[in-house]
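Give me structure tokens for this 174-residue protein.
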Amino acid sequence: MAERIPEGDNRIRFVCIQCETIHYQNPKVVTGCLPFHEDKVLLCKRAIAPRHGYWTLPAGFLENGETAAEGALRETMEEANAKAEIMDLYTMFSLPHISQIYIFYRARLTDLDFHPGIESLETCLFSEEEIPWDELAFPVITETLKHYFRDLPRGEFPTRSQDIGIDRRRDPIR
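Here you go.
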């Protein structure tokens, strides 16, 4: 492997020095749900790194062969054993400093029979006042929840997207 700009390209890529195959490295997509019931949202306490013991929305890396919505529902089942119905795309964050894109869907819980999956220590429904704001795992979770609780009284949930450029040395996401 060698790092170079392939002919007809404008970026440094990993290129096989024998066969000239270009090995692209593209951002990872993280997809998840903001599962809700009435005025509460379902959060999971992480049983894995990074941010073990912190609260998050159920989310994870998109798998090959699935849509972002399918991945969001799969992650909700894996992390919270929760059944939900996608309502709409809610937030999208582009984090170029860690080469990730986060996508969250609003999803109505179809029943309240949920419990921690293998990647979660706890699962719980929280109202806005009950959210452990200082114990949230990632800034994108905090931002999504802030948007949701601002939108909830109006009953209007516009899709939001945001590009986040964070100094790598002070990145609270990693």
